[in-house]
Amino acid sequence: MDVKLLFILTLLGILCCGRAQQEGNECIKANALSCGECIQVGAKCGWCTDTEFLKQGEPTSARCDELESLKKRGCAVPKIENPRGSQKILKNKNVTNRKKGAEKLKPEDITQIQPQKLTLSLRSGEPQTINLKFKRAEDYPIDLYYLMDLSYSMKDDLENVKNLGTSLMLEMSKITSDFRIGFGSFVEKTVMPYISTTPAKLLNPCTGDQNCTSPFSYKNVLKLTSNGQQFNTLVGQQQISGNLDSPEGGFDAIMQVAVCGEHIGWRNVTRLLVFSTDAGFHFAGDGKLGGIVLPNDGKCHLKDNMYTMSHYYDYPSIAHLVQKLSENNIQTIFAVTEEFQPVYKELKNLIPKSAVGTLSANSSNVINLIIDAYNSLSSEVILENSKLPEGVTITYQSHCKNGVINVGENGRKCSNISIGDEVSFSINITAQGCPKQGKSETIKIKPLGFTEEVEIKLSFICECECHQHGIKNSELCHNGNGTFECGACRCNRGRIGRQCECRRDEVSSEDLDMNCRKDNGTDICSNNGECVCGKCECKKRDNPEERYSGKYCECDNFNCDRSNNKLCGGHGRCECRVCICDANYTGSACDCSLDTRTCLATNKQICNGRGICECGVCRCTDPKFQGPTCEICPTCPGVCTEHKECVQCRAFGTGEKKDTCDEECNFFNLTKVKDRDKLPQPVQAFPLMHCKERDANDCWFYYTYAVNNNTEKEVHVVETLECPAGPDIIPIVAGVVAGIVLIGLALLLIWKLLMIIHDRREFAKFEKEKMNAKWDTGENPIYKSAVTTVVNPKYEGK
Fold it and tell me: Across-strand partners of 496?
């Protein structure tokens, strides 16, 4: 099972390596025929312009390769075309460090994002990184437009909103000294099914004695102003209206507020739209109920501050509203009653930079709602970009407060930003190929809800610099059949070949194929290439380091002998299946070193004069010696004595070197065994010496010393010492032992005698009781015979 698992893992490793190698070789696989095509493949690709670079049989596309591979193949760095992208900042005004109460600035003089304008030159596959800085400015101007539902159900709400102007101006003065407020109202489209069942109801759509104004779609009551009292006065003059169905036409009103900037009075500052209602909304498609089928055109249709095309255009879709709100940098606050909170929260998820607040039944909490929603919206910055050209991608990484880093879609935003906080964004922009045929494009990046933006002009590197110096109809390209540029011919239409020497219709003729067969054989280009214009163009390998070459593609640089799993031992290069060794190396796989320095002993002799240096390794001619320079003789006299002290200190912690054992005796591997039978025995693989040494206490210890085939010194030692007994103790021990033996024998005899006497007494007692015994011969009353007699009743004794 382990073998199978190992085989599977090895196979997977080979496949993974092969796939990674193949995927990483995009330059060769592209078969680029010009420098421009080559650099569009990827950022790792370069083009060699050296006219002598290609070997026989290599196609023009072989000039396109990875940069390191081109260098290894002999292309000088100045001859490699490898243009790189760049960036240039054109406008870089610092973000505004403004405090409330300081000198008042115009909105256009306040900067919250930096830089503001730059250009990028993009090379295919090479990302360009730009760093943007955003700082939420203090005392930043705010425009707020209050859009209110004036259907009958909002009657009590209107009473509270009449004093909203001055109250809201007072509260907002705590946030900014430059605040303006406007007011608009809406009810429903002015077509019959929505507002009334009869024309008479158009004048007063309310029931009973209620006095209501005529229904309308949207009315711009008050343009944005800094006069809060004027807001109160005009709002106080408004009257409610009515309609039939519950959903209102608020989307029509939102669209007009977004696109009618001149009528509303929007400035290039923070723009807030408060949408107040106690009902749902109509959206695109609902206009069919009133016979309206034309989709909303997203344009301004205000005349005398009234929306005049409600009967002509359908309601806008949610996506259409999102687009227009984003284009005009408007942040929306939905102030709705508790009943419709779920609906508008779902709408909020579709509209970036929007918030939802719960409006009380009579709108008494509207000021707190607006303040809370504004703080929520302004504490988050979200970057968005305009539409990207085809082939261009963009990624974001945000660096927010407290060291928080976000990537992916979250890399576009930072949250919990307070006034005066500064955050940054790293933005990578990458092009693939040559978008728009090299024409420049402009994209814009801006924070949602803000009018400021970053303008980025993109230009694309589609050709090499050497392309500008190309020679059209050059004689180098077969009588002017191509343009000679970047060291190669770019053939005219209908021509083919390295020098454009053939027409396309001649490529596969039999006569030309004959020139591609070696020795008149049957294989075209040795089955390693294609015959183009009578010349072999060798096919490419997935590995960029491996190539076919030769007039008939009969050569390659990857089928030479190997050593240590390396081509030519790593000490040469493979040319036409033969290793060309580096200096000081020889052999079919360049695995034999001619350098004798590795064979020099400390006495400056080669192999200590006891061997021959072959391929940088000593071959000892005296069988008694071994080691890198034939310096070790395990079986020579004196070896045991030489290593005695070190073996003693490491095995038993005794001897003269016990205090310096770690420093002086770490040159061998020590293994302890239990007894002498476990010591290694001599083998033919490497010599081994058996040693017996005595310590200062006349104790013997046994060990073996050897040098293995890896020139490692090995010592095996018996773990217990063999110590003789002392001379004075022997008689004493012998006497004690003899005394113990005699005492034991005496005790044994005494015990035996006592047992004999006891047994005789017991036997005599038994005999006496036997003689005196009188046995009763009475019959046992419960005894029953085991024999049963059965008489046959028919038996008559005959």
Answer: 502
Q: Which CATH superfamily is domain 86-98+106-138+383-461 in?
A: ntegrin, alpha v. Chain A, domain 3 (2.60.40.1510)
* H-helix segments, 632-715: 639-652, 661-664
| In 659-797, beta strands by DSSP E | 669-673, 688-694, 700-707, 713-718
State the angle between helix axes of 164-172 and 228-236 in degrees (0 to 180), rounded to the nearest 10.
150
- How far is the C-alpha of 102 from the C-alpha of 137, rounded, in Å? 12
Q: What is the CA radius of gyration of the chain?
A: 52
Q: Tokens in use for 693?
A: 């040494």
Q: What distances in angstroms separate CA 783 from CA 387, 775, 776, one per listed residue?
A: 122, 18, 15
Provide the β-strand partners of residue 273: 145, 332
pLDDT tens-place string over residues 225-283 = 999 888 888 888 888 876 655 678 899 999 999 999 999 999 988 999 999 888 889 88
CA distance to 472, 476, 500, per residue, from 479 (Å):
11, 7, 9
Q: Quick one: tokens of 128? A: 């360009």
Quote the CA–CA distance of 734 and 743 in Å, as a whole number: 14
3-state secondary structure of 367: helix
Question: Class for domain 142-379, per CATH?
Answer: alpha beta
Quote the CA–CA distance of 444 and 440 in Å, as a whole number: 14
- Phi and psi at 413, nearest 5°, equal -135, 160
Taking the CA atoms of residue 580, residue 585, residue 586 and residue 588 in that order, the dihedral angle to the nearest 10 degrees is -60
| CA–CA dist 225, 178 (Å, integer) | 11
How far is the C-alpha of 599 from the C-alpha of 611, rounded, in Å? 9
Rounded CA separation 296/786 (Å): 124
Q: What confidence tens digit (pLDDT) does each residue in 194-209 have?
A: 444 455 555 555 665 6
Helix (H) or strand (E) holding 194: helix 192-195
> Looking at the predicted structure, is the pLDDT value of residue 134 above 90?
yes
Q: What are the residues whose beta carbons fall under 8 Å from the beta carbon of 574, sequence distance 6 or more?
A: 556, 557, 558, 559, 560, 567, 568, 580
CATH architecture assignment, domain 563-593: Ribbon (2.10)
pLDDT in tens, 210-228: 667 778 889 999 999 999 8
d(CA 490, CA 590): 41
Q: Are strands 381-385 and 413-414 parallel, antiparallel or unpaired?
A: antiparallel
Peptide bond into 215 cis (omega under 30): no
**Which pair of structure tokens corresponds to residue 789?**
């007699």
| Nearest alpha-carbon partner for 575 in 552, 553, 549, 551 | 549
What ranges make up the beta strands (E) of 278-342? 302-303, 306-307, 330-336
Candidates 1.10.10.10, 3.30.200.20, 1.20.910.10, 4.10.1240.30; CATH matching 639-718 = 4.10.1240.30
Q: State the alpha helices, DSSP H only, in 496-638.
A: 510-514
Element (H, E) at 495: strand 495-496
Model confidence, pTM: 0.62
Q: State the pLDDT at residue 101.
A: 60
* CB neighbours of residue 273 within 10 Å: 25
End-to-end CA distance of the chain: 90
Domains 507-558 and 563-593 share a fold: yes
Q: What are phi and psi of 701, to 5 degrees?
A: -135, 145
Structure confidence at residue 697 as a pLDDT band (50, 70, 90): confident
The residue length of the chain stands at 798
What is the C-alpha separation between 645 and 468, in angstroms, rounded? 82
Q: Tell me how far apart the alpha carbons of residues 122 and 130 are, in angstroms, rounded to a whole number.
A: 12
Q: For the chain, what are the domain ranges? A: 24-81, 86-98+106-138+383-461, 142-379, 507-558, 563-593, 639-718
